[in-house]
Design brief:
Layout (H helix, E strand, L loop, with lengths): L13 H32 L3 H27 L1 H34 L1
Helix pairs in contact: 1-2, 2-3
Length: about 110
């Protein structure tokens, strides 16, 4: 396991501390928003808009929030990040399964 870094973010220049804390969160949130937009766009193109909303709800409320809570209790802050990874991986796998199933049905209907 990598060595943990202890950095006191409660003292010093407030502007620098906020920038230090804001950039990683900003990129993380941007990644989640882009993932949701791409997921919603492509699933919506298949004609199942409700399915895209269901995937987003499953990812956030059913997987990420409970895993982040449990992970933070067991592993600390590392558990929160692993929860995000796990939730995105699980829903991405589920989305690909539905995509391939839909493609197979379209091919079967065309023949």
């Amino acid at each position: 396991m990598p060595e943990k870094i202890n950095k006191n973010l409660t003292g010093g220049n407030i502007k620098n501390q906020l920038i230090t804390l804001t950039w990683p969160m900003l990129f993380g949130m941007m990644g989640m928003v882009i993932f949701n937009l791409v997921d919603t766009y492509f699933i919506g193109k298949l004609g199942v808009r409700q399915l895209a909303a269901i995937f987003s709800i499953i990812r956030m409320l059913v997987l990420y929030v409970p895993l982040a809570w449990a992970g933070s209790k067991i592993f600390g802050i590392d558990g929160v990040f692993w929860a995000g990874f796990t939730a995105n991986l699980a829903v991405g796998t589920l989305a690909f399964a539905f995509l391939f199933r839909t493609i197979r049905r379209i091919r079967e209907a065309g023949t």
